[in-house]
Design a protein that fits this description.
- The chain contains 15 helices and 22 strands.
- It has 632 residues and is of the alpha+beta class.
- It has three domains: 330 residues, DD-peptidase/beta-lactamase superfamily (Beta-lactamase); 97 residues, Lipocalin (Beta Barrel); 132 residues, no CATH class.
- The strands form four sheets. The protein has a nine-stranded antiparallel beta sheet, with helices on both faces. Strands 15-16-17-18-19-20-21-22 form an eight-stranded antiparallel β-barrel.
- A hairpin with an 8-residue loop joins β6 and β7.
- The relative contact order is 0.09.
Length: 632
């Protein structure tokens, strides 16, 4: 009996020892930022409360390979009706939809239908790509995944059309929205919705299935994602189509005067694989959990998962990973993989650490939202400056990389290439501390942002409370290059000169508007004082046109600021028409100077000045209108 009792005590002791050890291990399970798993929910609550002034709604799921750690639902899916966000709410994925493309491609690689290193034209109809500038250069699927196939932006890329204008199939949409190839293959990283949609079309062709059906059969059904749609019209999921009508979209800021309400705010996307997925947080996190699991239902072999999370591009000539088969890297305390998404009404984030198997899914009903979509991953995974190798806050830069950097994710070739000088511009200027201010010509553009060095060629851009990794190098032709996660920015003297000319046109155009408006007022006052009602028809017509132009552009600016769509369209057309009339009138004035031989020198000069102002005004209107069309 004593032996049995002794054996029993030994067994109990061993069990207690293992239980204690297991509890210790469980208590030590922390996020890379140092938050214990059991406390993640509390930390999320604190973070959201800190920034609740900018919150419409935000849903967050934190998970690992064992399942969901916590789900959180904050704010309202419909503020007016006080409808709380919950597990039934659906949100637009935006560009997170692209991960579905890259998973589909890797599945087809696994099945032997796609060779990542083959020329993509082997999988496309003959003569499909008609705007290739470098036809002799091979474009591979890896180039599409890395967004360095050379495609520039396009007015029609990811076009948000009317509901009844959506193309019937992906091939038609790609043919209509084809982008011009502005760069050599592999020359620059320039994020491309067109390139991603092209990859989806290739997966469609080699699988023999419509892409929507393919995703449903090979991703949604195996993962149990019953409440997600991939079709831009949501014809593939009745639940999503009905619930999306209940979601209202907003912009919310600490200062309420900047707030905006957008209503349901659909995005009817032509190149739908690149950004049309819509669904619940539960489904979004199911997809995330599948991405961190080597033995998930997405792939038949673990080796395919291993390949997908392996790097396909690097920052400059370093060994710092930039892209892993379509998954962007983010440099936090640890390197994480994933994708961000944005539509006209929503934004999202899906990110995970393939080493620890920890992931986060975030969905909001605010376009362009950054505080939650980028701040929460930093809360979970830590910030890059917390790494041991970057123990100093910053290193004083002995070099000077000051300059105006222009994004390569723009229209860089063609008639409207001047738009690149009005869009994504990044001017930096070195300060006395050895870091950089975001400034242009001594004028600080963003006083709350700065760029500082953390290691050789490695920098951190600090803005909106977030830290973003950047890498500096010099191109073969001597241009400075700053690489961000999804695009490269280049600086060159030629680009700066072109930018100055574009802005000079805009400034002179604005001056001409004011001068012409003042001249109209003075003309009327002069006529009233002289009591001379006899008017030269051409002169009075000119003044009326200038006055109407001034009114039209003012009306346009006011209606644009107020987000009144139909007023914006009407005033835009009016301003353009009057601008064209102004240019014609200016040419007519010059013609009069040439034709009339007896006209006085003073009158000639006067007419030439007003003619020049007319033409400058027209240049301003056209530039302004094209830019606003692009911005839409």
């Amino acid at each position: 009996m004593k032996k049995i009792m002794s054996l029993f005590l030994i067994v109990c002791y061993i069990m207690l020892l293992f239980a204690t050890k297991a509890n210790v291990l469980a208590s030590e399970l922390c996020t890379p930022s140092g938050i214990e798993y059991s406390n993640i929910g509390n930390e999320l609550d604190k973070y959201v409360e800190k920034y609740e002034a900018g919150l419409a709604s935000c849903e967050v799921a934190v998970f690992d390979r064992n399942g969901i750690i916590t789900n959180k639902y904050y704010g309202y899916s419909d503020i007016e009706n006080r409808t709380l966000a919950n597990r039934d709410t659906v949100y637009d994925w935006g560009s997170c939809s692209k991960i579905l493309i890259w998973v589909s491609v890797m599945q087809q690689v696994e099945r032997g239908n796609i060779d990542l290193d083959a020329d993509i034209r082997e999988y496309l109809p003959d003569g499909f790509l008609t705007k290739l500038q470098y036809e002799d250069e091979k474009i591979t699927m890896i180039n599409l995944m890395n967004h360095n196939a050379g495609f520039q932006e396009s007015f029609y890329e990811n076009q948000e059309c009317e509901k009844d204008e959506v193309y019937d199939n992906l091939e038609e949409a790609l043919r209509a929205c084809e982008c011009y190839q502005a760069y050599h293959v592999g020359e620059y990283t320039a994020y491309s919705n067109y390139g991603a949609a092209l990859a989806a079309f290739i997966a469609e062709r080699v699988s023999g299935m419509d892409y929507r059906e393919y995703v449903k059969e090979n991703i949604f059904i195996p993962l149990g994602m019953e409440h997600t749609s991939i079709d831009t019209l949501m014809t593939d999921n009745d639940y999503v189509r009905e619930k999306r009508e209940e979601l209202k979209c907003y912009s919310r800021f600490e200062d309420p005067k900047y707030n905006a309400d957008y209503g349901v705010c659909h995005s009817w996307v032509q190149l739908y694989p690149a950004g049309s997925a819509i669904g619940t947080l539960d489904d979004f996190s199911k997809f995330g959990m599948a991405l961190i699991s080597p033995d998930s239902a997405l792939f038949e072999r673990k080796s395919t998962w291993d390949e997908m999370i392996s790097p396909t591009s690097y920052f400059g000539d370093s060994d710092i990973e930039k892209n892993c088969h379509g998954l962007w890297t983010t440099q936090c305390k640890v390197q994480i993989l994933g994708h961000a998404g944005n539509t006209a009404g929503c934004s999202s984030m899906l990110a995970f650490d393939p080493v620890s198997g920890l992931g986060v899914a975030i969905m909001t009903n605010e376009p362009g939202e950054t505080v939650f979509n980028f701040g929460i991953p930093n809360l979970i995974f830590g910030e890059i400056t917390e790494r041991e190798e970057y123990s100093d806050r910053y290193v004083k830069d002995e070099n000077d990389i000051s300059g105006i950097y222009f994004s390569q994710r723009m229209i860089s070739a063609g008639t409207v290439s001047f738009l690149k000088y009005m869009g994504m511009i990044f001017p930096i200027q070195k300060n006395e501390e050895g870091s950089y201010n975001i400034s242009f010509g001594g004028l600080t553009v963003d006083p709350d942002s700065r760029l500082y060095k953390i290691a050789d060629n490695q920098y951190v851009l600090e803005r909106n409370g977030q830290k973003e990794f950047m890498y500096y190098s010099v191109t073969a032709d001597g241009k400075g290059k700053l690489e961000m996660m999804s695009m490269d920015m280049i600086t060159s003297k030629a680009d700066v000169v072109k930018m100055v000319l574009v802005f000079a046109t805009l400034i002179l155009g604005m001056i001409s508007i004011l001068v012409l408006a003042v001249k109209l007022v003075l003309f009327i006052i002069w006529k009233l004082r002289k009591k001379n009602l006899k008017l030269n028809k051409q002169i009075i017509a000119t003044q009326i046109v200038y006055g109407a132009n001034f009114a039209a552009i003012s009306f346009y600016l006011n209606s644009s600021a107020g987000n009144v769509y139909w007023l914006t369209v009407i005033s835009s057309l009016l301003a353009t028409g009057l601008g064209l009339f102004s240019a014609v009138n200016g040419v007519y004035l010059i013609y009069g100077v040439v034709k009339e031989k007896d006209i006085k020198i003073k009158s000639k000069i006067n007419r030439c000045i007003w003619s020049l102002l007319s033409v400058m005004y027209f240049g301003f209107i056209i530039t302004f209108q094209v830019y606003n069309f692009w911005a839409l």
